[in-house]
Design brief:
Acts as a defensive agent. Recognizes blood group fucosylated oligosaccharides including A, B, H and Lewis B-type antigens. Does not recognize Lewis A antigen and has low affinity for monovalent haptens. This is Fucolectin tachylectin-4 pentraxin-1 domain-containing protein. The chain is about 0% helix and about 35% strand. The chain is mainly beta and about 350 residues long. It has 3 domains: about 5-135, Sandwich (Jelly Rolls); about 145-275, Galactose-binding domain-like (Jelly Rolls), CATH 2.60.120; about 280-350, Jelly Rolls, CATH 2.60.120. The strands form 4 sheets. Strands 9, 10, 11, 12, 13, 14 and 15 form a 7-stranded antiparallel beta sheet that branches. Strands 2, 3, 4, 5, 6 and 8 form a 6-stranded antiparallel beta sheet that branches. Bound molecules: calcium ion (2 copies). One calcium ion binds near residues 159, 172, 268 and 269.
Amino acid sequence: MVSVYRNKPGDYGSVKAVDGSRNIHLDHYSCATTSAVRNAWWQVDLQAIYLIREVVITNRGDTYAGFLLHDVVIQALKGTQHLTCGEIGHNPLADGETKHIPCRPGTVGSVIKVTRKASDSTGIVLCEVEVYGTQGYSLAHGKPTHMSSTFGSYVSSKAVDGDKNSLITENSCTQTLKQKNNWWQVDLQAVYVIREVVITNRGDRNAGERLHDIVIEALKKTEVSICEVIVYALKNGETRRIPCQPRTVGNVIKIRQNATKAEYFTLCEVEVYGTQVYNVALKKPATQGNVHYEAYASKAVDGKASTLWNAESCTYSDVVHPWWIVDLEAVYLIIDVVITNREGYRRKLD
Ligand SMILES: [Ca+2]
Ligand SMILES: [Ca+2]
């Protein structure tokens, strides 16, 4: 947290908000307490990424000091991304109150940060902060979706709202118009090796029998890899785990129907699990045939995007049959090798 009251971390340190005790008395030393500063903050590192469902905050209860806990924002941090879980508004918590703050759908992060936005400079006291969520969240959760057509309010995003309710009247399922060749897709916003897709089918009025002859694909630019083909209908309300074929790679997951007659197409939830694809060569040891003009082999894995020679980010080797090698220092499944050529140079990289 930003600072510790009286500089006594043993009595008021940040860990006191996660010591498992909701004790509300400051002199029992179970409340994290900052000094009197403006915009005081406290945070906890969960050490893994979670889909955060709820944050529970216990307020100080002695000496009527509880009135200080108002104008607080609770955020989930993931890298540079800050998502707001929820807020405590201008009305303070009651003395000693334990407040349940449900997070907005799609609140994902590895750090939970509690910040006081009040104009006064009385700092912040948190007697306990509890965080509830699930690890291994779906990559599709809250991501942008599209589908071939929309019936009423059953929009494409309902399949990634985190709710597996299979009753269409509960407003958490998608539905297209009654057409042939229906499709639905989600943009994962990064390239992944897809391990598994989990589909929850509609469960009411036996409408689940419409979900048959579907193809689950991963798309990456113009490349298509098929995760799986399902011929027979899923059961009513069934949640089915569908393991993907090896090397199913993409940033978009598309589910399309190859039905011979026009039908409504409904998905109550789609979850996607996989591993992100990233540059495994970055800053790894590199060698080459010889080195000219101090253009070392490492320049090709320095992470700099410039293509200009003067930017000193290109390699140069001029032996006969030149070569360049990078040692990845581990075994990887290689999806792509991307080479950037020097700009404005007469001799081509051929
Ligand atoms: Ca505590
Ligand atoms: Ca849903």
